[in-house]
Design goal:
CATH topology of the largest domain: Rossmann fold
Helix content: 25-40%
CATH superfamily of the largest domain: NAD(P)-binding Rossmann-like Domain
Number of helices: 12
Strand content: 5-15%
Oligomer: single chain
Number of strands: 12
CATH class of the largest domain: Alpha Beta
Radius of gyration: 21 Å
Largest sheet: 7 strands, parallel
Shape: globular
Distance between the termini: 23 Å
Length: 327
Amino acid sequence: MKIFAFALRPFDELAYLERACHELNVEFDWTSEYPTLENASLAAGSDALTIITNPMTAELLDRYHELGIRAIATRSIGYDHIDVDHARSLGMRVAHAAYPPEGVADYTIMLMLMALRRAKQVFRHAGVQNFGLEGKLGRSLGSCTVGVVGTGAIGSCVIRELTGFGCRVLACDPFPRDDVRAMAEYVELEELLPESDVVTLHAPGLAENHHMIGAAELALMKPDAVLINAARGMLVDTDALITALEQGRLGGAALDTIEHEAGLYYLDRSLDVLANRERAILMALPNVVVSPHMAFYTAEDVEQMVRTNVEALLAFDRGDDSLYEVR
């Protein structure tokens, strides 16, 4: 079996891919280029692809199918960048990655602390030798009620980590978990929002969750509350969020992901004009932290993302099931 890796980072992913393929006796080739129709022929002679969060359109899938590609795995948990239905219509199996939840959970806690302690203002002012205290008064995380929306692997891990801070934790999920009940109180979203000082999102990027936090939901939140999103940008109506922040109806936000970010991240774009006005506005606000969708980015998580892709594609090649297959 031969795997072709697109958009592979030579400074971290390559070593993990070499190790996994050596241990599992899989042949591979790679490029740092993102997959396009123009470079699709690089995958000729391969059986499967591993990609990252670049759009995998029907047109591109058709081209890979012509080249003999039978399966695709994405080195991410999310897979909404792949036209899965079209892939299935071509007989191509699709897999996503899995990795331990602690990396994203740790990052989420960091975002909470940055928002509550006004870290953006503190460090910006320190950089220009403004060491005054005015406008930098923070809040203790332990004194806050934290609302966790989505209690899957990552959301429940965030709750476990929050227990060390002594927070009151509210949770919202259509599928409550017994282990979470021991650490948090399950409530409906309409109750969670007005009760919480911090609202953190960990719901999946499903169609029914699109804009689950919109103007109506933001209006329910406390005027000094902060919103954290290290899950999916599509969960939040960005325009509504900007309006709430501009009107002083929300204390702040810390966002590792925003809407319409496809194609923006994981590249040096310092000399480019970026076609995402919402991001530019959010970046300019003093009470908003925006990071480039990198909560996952730990050595442990990157290694597992690569390895689970290889394991899934190898299982597909054998005709077996895989825990990582997109169902």
